[in-house]
Amino acid sequence: MEGTLTWQEALHAAHRVFCLSHPKPDGDAIGSLLGIYHTLTARGKSVTLVLPDPVPTYLQFLPGWQHIQIWSESSEAIQQAAQEADIFFCVDFGRWDRIAPALKALIDPERLIWVDHHADSELLSRRWNFWRVEAAATAELLYTEVLHPWYGHSLPLPARIALYTGMVTDTGGFRFRSVTPHTLRTAAELITPPFPLEAIHHYIFQRKKLSALRLQTYLIQHHLRQIEGLPVMLLPVPASVLETFGATWEDIETLPNQILALEGVLLSVVLKEYPDSIRISLRSVGEFPCHELAQRFDVGGGHRNAAGATLYRSLDEAVTFTETLLKTDYAHSLLEHYRAFLATLELQEHQL
Description:
By secondary structure, the chain is an alpha/beta fold. About 40% of the residues lie in helices and about 15% in strands. The chain is globular, with a radius of gyration of 21 Å.
């Protein structure tokens, strides 16, 4: 591929496209991948979609999700597709340490279009980087700066469904502070009729399993606790509890946000016991910087109000470490941020 080509020219010339997103994929990762898939295949491209981990059940309503290949299940076919690719996409992650070295080795940074909105990212492509921290979702950025300009008119309906799903999931239903007028204008373009808006919201926000509700109720009753004196709720989740309920980690995916909705909470911390590590979900309201807190663990990063981290310790040790860290290093900050957040809720003090 000639070094003087623009990304638009390179994409038009490409026949085979290889797309990759991050482990433990969320709606933004999968929506972005499928947005690329449906847009590019409508123009005759051959597109390979790759994830390190399977598509969560709650996102398997998305048209085309079956086309996503999982590295652990199809590594030979994925390697072959990467060798034959003319151009690459990496979406919704911005650090190579989030990807297994074997997957990173498949990506040619000279032929890579990179799209991401995480604050702690590093430039991954040597030529074509689309990085906007102010974007509410990677899907938003992907639509406005790549797919819509390249495609030229209204994207195919399956692509719009995928990209809208990426946006609505990464913004908590357009309620996080990352949402801007640009975000809502982008969503308005995507839902141009015909569009199954009610069905998408049903799959994402309303379709719940009774077994998951029972598990969540048990965890809240027996394991959830507030850190004394702080607007913080902490929930350790032992692996044995999931085994008892015959559940998966996907069954508690929404718990961090549900806990955050409790009165008097600025920060929710959910610690999940995996065989080799403790994976931590951090959610906050207001200006409290979850992404900075996440970096105090062994591995961590993400957004201001939603981040993830990992500790290579036992669950009990991880709980002690987290509580001590918050009490000793963040107590003043947490209280100050909570007071500032409460002030923003006093709408009667604003000139409405």
